[in-house]
Design goal:
Length: 138
């Protein structure tokens, strides 16, 4: 799946990502400021989370609960120096828990990522448009 979108269309893009994702571990790639966190917030909302969603830049992971009492985990690995930091927090248990795991800066923990995941690449275009590309990894 590849689509261009603007900010007013972000909830539709979030629905499309959920619909087309074959796995619950979503890996978000894109430059700083491209809108990864904004898109993740919308996906979390579409999954039925009513809590205020914020980036876990300093805590590494935020846990949310949907209205159906399912868990959604939002990771931000931007600030980690070594993959061992992610191992120490038990990241593999999260990834294999069958809960939604939305991961910003997955390249920082590349060797720990599950093979069955979904790559979500976001690029900025002109006129405030973004392109999102979704690839299911088997």
């Amino acid at each position: 799946m590849e689509k261009n979108y603007s900010l007013p269309e972000i909830s539709e893009i979030a629905k499309e990502i959920i619909k087309h994702a074959k796995h619950k571990v979503l890996l978000f790639y894109g430059n700083m400021g491209v809108g990864k966190t904004t898109l993740i917030k919308e996906i979390v909302k579409e999954l039925g989370v009513l809590d205020q969603v914020s980036s876990p830049t300093f805590s590494l992971v935020n846990e949310y609960h949907t209205q159906k009492n399912e868990k959604v985990f939002h990771f931000d690995f931007y600030r980690i120096e070594e993959e061992e930091e992610a191992l120490d927090m038990g990241v593999e248990e999260y990834f294999y828990s069958n809960n939604w795991c939305l991961v910003e800066w997955p390249n920082k923990v590349e060797n720990l990522l599950p093979l069955k995941s979904v790559t979500v690449s976001i690029t900025a275009n002109e006129n405030q448009l973004r392109t999102v590309q979704l690839t299911n990894n088997e």
